[in-house]
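Team,

Forwarding the record for the chain on the shared tracking sheet. I've put the sequence and predicted structure together so nobody has to dig through attachments.
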Amino acid sequence: MKVGIATQNEELRTKEARGSHDVQEGSAIRGKALRLNLLLPDRSAQRLENLKTLTEASSFTEVIRNALRLYEAVELEYEKGHKVQIVDKDGHPLGTLLE
């Protein structure tokens, strides 16, 4: 499944024409929009589609933004030494995501 994705050959031709490079890990992107082309395996693409439907998101971009916010929040709590758990509506733990 393609999700707003250029094929690898199209992506390479575009990069060569523009002389652009991939964003390197640790690069500062503040104040700029970052355009990504994602090549997702079918299972990941299906997950993205399912999350878009489940959350009634208007776009795949919205799903990814929300996922990044959640992932960041979980990681920040984990870094503080906190557990990240799922609890039922009565407050009973159902499992621990990160310990």
